[in-house]
Every structure is written in structure tokens, then in C-alpha cells.
Task: structure prediction
Amino acid sequence: MVWTELRFQEGAVEMVCPVTLEGTMPSATFSKVINTQIGSITSASTEFCRGGSALFLNSLPWSFKYYIYGGTLPNIESVLFYTSDVELLLRDTIFGFTAEC
Result:
């Protein structure tokens, strides 16, 4: 998955970063059961951000889980996946002070 502009925003402060996640899905099919692990994220990277910096803090792999699909069977229009394993440090300088979250 590649985002050329993943935006993090709080109020007037905005940071825009390119983010790339790579992983594996051991099967071409999976059950539509919430929280079912369907794969692993094995690589995560970000490069120079506009408005600050971003750093992935925790080690890989991260679990990749099914959440829900949109549309009606058999015409699925979207599928939502998630991971709760990501820890990301965002750093910015605001009025000369370093802010982290």
C-alpha cells in the first residue's frame, strides 16, 4: 500500500508524509469475520515529510486484520482492513519548540 500524501492534522498543524507498507497475505481468500488476521505487514517506510518528521517505533511484522466490506454480495465495492500494532512518532517544530505525539 502506498500513500504519496498521508496527512496528519490537528487544528492548524498539518504534516504530509509519503508512506509505504508492504506485506504478505498467505491466502487469496479469507473469511468475512471481524478481527480475522489475513496477513502481516513486513515493511514500513516513510521519507521526508512536509511540516515535520515521522518515525515508526515498533518492530515488524504487524498483523493485518479484516474489519468490514462495503456493498452487497456478490458486488463488494470496498474492504476495510486495519492493524493496531503501529506506533508512529510525529515530530514538528512550532514557534521554535519541538512538539511530539
In short: The mean pLDDT is 90. The first strand starts at residue 2 and ends at 10.
